From TrEMBL:
Its EC number is 2.5.1.-. SUPFAM superfamilies: Undecaprenyl diphosphate synthase. Belongs to the UPP synthase family. This is Alkyl transferase. GO terms for molecular function: ditrans,polycis-polyprenyl diphosphate synthase [(2E,6E)-farnesyl diphosphate specific] activity; magnesium ion binding. Keywords: Transferase, Transit peptide. PROSITE patterns: UPP_SYNTHASE. InterPro entries: UPP_synth-like (IPR001441), UPP_synth-like_CS (IPR018520), UPP_synth-like_sf (IPR036424).
Amino acid sequence: MCSLLPKYLRSKTTTLPPQLRRYLLLRVTGDIESPSLLKNPIMPLSNTILMFRRQFCKLPFGVVSKEELLREGLQPELMPKHVAIIPDGNRRWAKERGLSPEKGHEAGKKVLGDLCRYCSKWGVKVLSAYAFSTENWSRPKAEVTFLMTSYFEGLIHDFMRYGMKMSIIGDKSNLPNSLKEAINIAEETTKDNTGLHFVAALNYGGRYDITQATKKIATKVKDGVIQLEEINDKLIDQELETKYLEYPNPDLLIRTSGELRISNYMLWQLAYSEFCFVDKLFPELDEADFVAALRSFQRRQRSYGGNKI
């Protein structure tokens, strides 16, 4: 690790919250490439991070040849643009092995990173993951505290190193300040990255998403910005949390652990998605399972309510 960033974080001129400063001192890695930064190391952290985006781990996009796709029974023109994942089974995986729930989540984080690599490799444009639902606050306090501090902050930091674009959707209002800061840094730092777009749904629920969109539209009607007759599907799409995504609606949803439900995830966006339920706990998911899901998706006839001739 270059010594300049730690030097800044330890300096008296930094205005960062102590918790975030300590976290970054422990977690930040990367080579500083900017000559201007070398000349002037004492600068705002947001500028510092923007000046040395981590390219050393950048995920190659669409590296599989057409011949390899065909050998796997896949066609590049039928590849889903947006794959959504409900990563279920981390806690059960840990319990079966006599481990704490935290160990299960850490194992799941590794597999989520693997999924980013699989999506980049096979040419998927967007990967969205149901990281923490609006209902997950009812879990044991110790587990929620772990997730809301070291786990999600660590996940965001680690995934920034992949060189992909990152976005966090969901209600951020009641997240810890240090996590909000990590989210802001990640989204600002990676906003111009190309290739895979990774989206984490954090404190998210499909009902919440539709409700907040409805409130925004109702306010516009009340204020005379739009007329009641103008409300349609497209207008609702423009107010959902996924409105900034190039491909907001998942083509394929994968859920692990054998459960056959969508658990309040992207209720509006999943209207015409294809579902694939995998009878494995999430930490057990591997590339063969992912390719099998892609193959299953490509065999299906998608008519969107019309007739498929």
